[in-house]
Amino acid sequence: MIAANLGKRKDLAKVEAVLRTDRRITILVNNAGVGSTAPLLQADVEALAQRFPSGGQVKSRAGSQ
Hints:
- By secondary structure, the chain is mainly alpha-helical.
- It has a domain at about 1-30.
- It has helices at about 10-20, 45-50.
- The protein is elongated and about 40 Å long.
């Protein structure tokens, strides 16, 4: 586990360095500590899009060479 605030350049550099050297990592999970009051399948998609403007993009190296 890597604890980092990706809004801070120093923490972002730390995560990037680990990703460059450790090929075992294939997915990142952003646990920003934001909660919801409804199950995901019942959530308001528009409200989620406003809360998470990145669009929930998933970056993965799985299958890359």
